[in-house]
Amino acid sequence: MQEVFIYTDGACRGNPNGPGGYGVVLEYFDQEGKKHIKELSGGYTNTTNNRMELMGVLKGLEALKKPCIVKLYTDSQYIVKAFNEGWLNNWIHNNWKRGKKKEDVKNVDLWKKIIIAKEKHNVTFNWVKGHASHPQNERCDSLATTAADGDNLLEDVTG
After folding, report:
1. Global pTM value
2. Across the chain, which distance is largest between two alpha carbons, in Å?
3. Residue 78 near residue 48, CB atoms below 8 Å
4. What is the pLDDT of residue 100?
5. Residues labelled catalytic
């Protein structure tokens, strides 16, 4: 299986409920050792930072055409902990409720899509410190903020 590195970030102006965007950088090396890079971004109206962080992960995984070994890097501890510390499994087991008060998990629509998108891949989630001169994270941040500030924003429809 091809090894792919996916870097993601999300941004929201006036979080919550402002314009937002996601940025994704996908990198892999072909059989000759040549590095390939693909960038993705998109902007949405009336969204949240966490939704845009999740959208970056989703769009990165959906861009893969065949099963891959994926090393995904994000500055969102929300995402990394959900997968690496079992939060997501607990939410699913508790019918998308969290905590002692059994509050509704937010962004269930995107979590469910990510679960489906990652099924055929071997994905590891890794945290990188944001705004700490990590080149790919900085590029993702630039893509996300540029998308959030764009003119052709899509409506962020939950469901």
Report:
1. 0.95
2. 54
3. no
4. 84
5. 9-10, 53, 75, 131, 141
Instruction: Of 135, 131, 128, 157, give the one whose Cα is nearest residue 11.
Output: 131
Peptide bond just before 135 cis, omega within 30 deg: no
State mean pLDDT over 48-71.
Answer: 98
Which architecture, in CATH terms, is 2-155? 2-Layer Sandwich (3.30)
3-state secondary structure the chain: CEEEEEEEEEEECCCCCEEEEEEEEEEEECCCCCEEEEEEEEEEEEECHHHHHHHHHHHHHHCCCCCEEEEEEECCHHHHHHHHCCHHHHHHHCCCEECCCCEECCCHHHHHHHHHHHCCCEEEEEECCCCCCCHHHHHHHHHHHHHHCCCCCEECCCC
Integer Cα distance of 64 and 34 in angstroms: 18
